[in-house]
């Protein structure tokens, strides 16, 4: 078994009296695609918000690369290599595609201000490297031809891909995708499927996925967790989950 | 009671008086913020206009030879409330409604523009100088030891307390019982949904501006009588104080505005009693900064959950 | 039409209620008594003219909007000089402009140069606030506090320690930046409108402190006799202080008080060019991109590892230091400062400049600063209407052109292949 990358234990999130996430455990290993599925309102996105630091979990531990990250600020978690996308695309829509990619590399470019004011050699070199990295990832997601377009003018499927590329350019080790296939047509979903597999196999990162498209989930996941009403229901390989009676009940209701 | 204690008691009385009027003005901030999430910067000017109108009416009626003070005050109150509400409504209609749905900064800048406009409008139409009204309500009770320190509670102060209490009770009843009050609360929860349910949200928002302006006018009348002077610049600082009170109590919360106003009033009275009085503004702004830093939801406000 | 008639009557009624007492009646004090006087007939005439205007504009609003729809709107973007569109000409035009700026004062009157210097101060302030409001999207209503800090740092350092203008210039900027940093660090986490109020409160606190800390700041009397800047130790007075040489003796020319005015003007030009240079570079740097990104979507920024507090803080600090610069120069030019110069209205004027010029646009801000300072000089009889119009202008701008007269885009990075 490969190395454990993300280890979540007893994750719990309360909003006042509402228990949104109840004692959820997750494990993601290196070079794995892991999915979280569950009915709408099951608390999947809340789990993501806890992992990525947008919420501070009420209880439980989140260990990423052997380090406790629960309660860290969102941007610190992202700098450690855990980066997420959003259910509704969040691009800088008035900026160009390439600028979206450059903003994501802000901290790689964090040279001092004087260097930028006087355009030192090192500054220009770093800027060029950032450009190259951006171009590389745009090529990976098939957006290189749109580099100088405004992000808001892209088609929806392209915006989704740009969001993933923008995450990848930060050089993460674990990518959290929140319903990446929502609103995509079958052809775009297939491209996405290929892209995610490629991320795992060629770029050696792990992906944690929330998705409702079952054919996508069942096709690419190494492991699946099922959550209902904030509580873990089942987990296992796609085949295990498909045959689990509890899961069938949760999705289809009592017979 | 010792002298120090009596002195403190006097400061508390003064503080609660000023605090009540802050609370009245703060209602306007808190309701508008609750419903459309913007700071109505021009609200302080509405209070100032209310003060001017009541001075004009009182001076006018006195000039006509009217003597029955309660009648004069009642007429002044009614006229001030009507005209100030009209100003409140117009400000919303002209400067904020067309901007609904745009970036947050835009209505805020428009509000600042409106505030500057109204202030200078009064400078031009009246004058920049102080106008003084001789005290109308005099007398009061005194108690304490005449040898040490005499605490006084004037009838004017008592009037302010009673009037504030009545306004607040009426407002609470109105918000909780009436149809419009229900619509206001619904709007504050979810404007889009309220609109879908067939409630005219524009009208409801206009209503909150009118209510806020009416209460500011009441405060204008009361504070005008209490201090006996008004100038076009009183609205700016009073507005800032009232906003502090609203934030202190928890913006969006009506009981919070009340509580915040009283706390701020007492704090100010105590500061000016024991320190040079110029620093009372410093203390209240300092208080504002501290609350925003450590408890941005205020004493009685609900914490905001960020939607991701 | 009937609908319009109703709304016209309603609007006219509202206008009457608004104006009848506030404009129609005036309060005057007679001895200890307060009296009311009716406005003059002419003023009532104006009130009814206003009501009639509102009535008819509402009654015929369909016709009016139909008529105005036909008028082509002026394309303000085309007013931007050619430089933006033809990159080859740009350096030449800029050079010509700079030369013009340096040569021009020698040909005109002292008053004109002095006014130009004042305008340049506002240009600096406008550019500085534009970083905060226009680029980073943070509404700072206490900007004048940093201006005051800059001015008082020079005044105090010069009068207590005898430091020269040139030594104080960076110190003032750093001090103002430090205050910006210390204030910004806690408050920048707040939502935008809270930030506006806190900065407003900060501005007031600074003013109150300056007014009351009499031992240090001279209180309401301010500080006078502040040293003028020197040119490499040459003074611009008729007789130099001990150990110094006056400029005119050194150059072997006759003394003229105009030299000093021109010298101050030239310093202002240099300072403005420096500020422009810094801002232009900042906008092209990752920091400038991060400001825009943060304005567009803060949550996305955080998810990408951007520290929003630090990024906002840099904008706030840069803005503050620019104000410190301007303040230091202001103190040197006036020779006298008092808290009177640093009231809220001053912040509002600077904000009006930024809003009018177009948030984020430097060319627009410069133009707006020129308009806002020079126009009142030419229209002195309207000076009492100045603030009224500023307020009105801000409301109207937000309604019809929130992006300002000359909106601009940050220069976009292009991928070249």
Mean pLDDT score of chain B, rounded? Answer: 87
Rg of chain B, Å, rounded: 20 Å
Percent of residues in helices of chain C comes to: 55-70%
| Coarse morphology of chain C | globular
Uncertain stretches of 5 or more adjacent residues of chain C: none
Largest interface: B-C, 71 and 59 residues
Order of helices and strands of chain B: HHHHEEEHHHHEHHH
Distance between the termini of chain C: 61 Å
Q: What is the topological layout?
A:
The complex is a heterotrimer of chains A (255), B (308) and C (417).
Chain A: E1 4-15, E2 18-29, E3 33-37, H1 44-51, E4 59-64, E5 67-68, H2 74-79, E6 82-84, H3 97-104, H4 113-117, H5 121-140, H6 156-168, E7 174-178, H7 186-201, E8 206-210, H8 214-220, E9 223-228, E10 231-236, H9 238-243, H10 245-252
Helix pairs in contact in A: 3-6, 5-6
Chain B: H1 3-36, H2 43-63, H3 69-96, H4 105-125, E1 131-132, E2 140-145, E3 149-154, H5 155-177, H6 179-189, H7 191-196, H8 201-227, E4 229-230, H9 234-249, H10 254-274, H11 280-294
Antiparallel strand pairs in B: 1-4, 2-3
Helix pairs in contact in B: 1-5, 1-8, 1-9, 1-10, 2-3, 2-4, 2-8, 2-9, 3-8, 5-6, 5-8, 6-8, 9-10, 9-11, 10-11
Chain C: H1 2-22, E1 25-30, E2 33-38, H2 41-59, H3 61-69, H4 90-103, H5 110-135, H6 143-161, H7 165-187, H8 192-212, H9 214-217, E3 223-224, E4 234-235, E5 245-246, H10 247-251, H11 257-284, H12 286-296, H13 298-303, H14 308-334, E6 336-337, H15 344-357, H16 362-378, H17 386-400
Parallel strand pairs in C: 4-5
Antiparallel strand pairs in C: 1-2, 3-6
Helix pairs in contact in C: 1-2, 5-11, 5-14, 5-15, 5-16, 6-7, 6-8, 6-14, 7-14, 11-12, 11-14, 12-14, 15-16, 15-17
What would your notes on this structure say?
The complex is a heterotrimer of chains A (255), B (308) and C (417). With 255 residues, chain A is of the alpha/beta class. Chain A folds into 2 domains: 1-81 and 172-255, Rossmann fold, CATH 3.40.50.300; 91-171, no CATH class. Helices cover 38% and strands 24% of the residues of chain A. Chain A has 10 helices and 10 strands. Chain A has helices at 44-51, 74-79, 97-104, 113-117, 121-140, 156-168, 186-201, 214-220, 238-243, 245-252; strands spanning 4-15, 18-29, 33-37, 59-64, 67-68, 82-84, 174-178, 206-210, 223-228, 231-236. In chain A, the strands form 2 sheets. Chain A has a 6-stranded mixed sheet, sandwiched between helices. Chain A has a 4-stranded antiparallel sheet with strand order 2-1-4-5, with helices on one face. In chain A, β9 and β10 form a beta hairpin. Chain A is globular and about 65 Å long. The N and C termini of chain A lie far apart (38 Å). In chain A, 44% of the residues are buried. By secondary structure, chain B is mainly alpha-helical. Chain B has one domain (3-294): ABC transporter involved in vitamin B12 uptake, BtuC. Chain B has 11 helices and 4 strands. Chain B has helices at residues 3-36, 43-63, 69-96, 105-125, 155-177, 179-189, 191-196, 201-227, 234-249, 254-274, 280-294, and strands at 131-132, 140-145, 149-154, 229-230. In chain B, a hairpin with a 3-residue loop joins β2 and β3 (149-154). In chain B, α3 (69-96) packs across α8 (201-227) and α5 (155-177) packs antiparallel against α8. Chain C has 2 domains: 2-69, no CATH class; 85-400, Orthogonal Bundle (ABC transporter involved in vitamin B12 uptake, BtuC). Helix content of chain C is 67%, strand content 5%. Chain C is built from 17 helices and 6 strands. In chain C, strands 1-2 form a two-stranded antiparallel sheet. The longest helix of chain C has 28 residues, at 257-284.
